[in-house]
Write a structure and sequence with these properties.
mainly alpha, 59% helix, elongated
Length: 98
C-alpha cells in the first residue's frame, strides 16, 4: 500500500517538474508558484480571476500576491486588466506561449 502511494506521489512530482520546465516556472520561489497555481485553479473553475480571488484562496497577503503577479506580468506569464466593475480591482489572464 505504501509503495503504491509513493509511486503515485512520485509520478505527480515528475509531472509537476515537467510542467514547471515547460512553462518557465523553475526560477520562481515556492510562494510565487503557489500564486501562479492558484490563478490557474481559479480560472479552471470559473470564467474570471482577480487579485482578491487569489488572496482569498491562497491565504497569502495582498502584498505578496501583488509582487508575484507583477513579476509574472513582467515575464509575460499573466496579463493584468483593470476590472470594468471595480476600478480598484484587476482581472488576471494566464498567457500561454505559442
Amino acid at each position: 500500500m505504501a509503495s503504491e502511494f509513493i509511486k503515485q506521489i512520485s509520478t505527480v512530482l515528475k509531472m509537476l517538474d515537467s510542467l514547471e520546465k515547460e512553462y518557465n516556472l523553475i526560477g520562481y520561489n515556492q510562494t510565487e508558484k503557489k500564486v501562479y497555481y492558484t490563478i490557474v485553479m481559479i480560472l479552471d473553475s470559473k470564467d474570471s480571476c482577480n487579485i482578491t480571488d487569489v488572496i482569498n484562496l491562497s491565504n497569502l497577503s495582498r502584498s505578496t500576491v501583488y509582487k508575484a503577479i507583477k513579476k509574472f506580468e513582467k515575464n509575460k506569464l499573466v496579463q493584468l486588466d483593470q476590472s470594468n466593475y471595480d476600478k480598484r480591482e484587476f482581472n488576471l489572464t494566464v498567457l500561454v506561449a505559442a
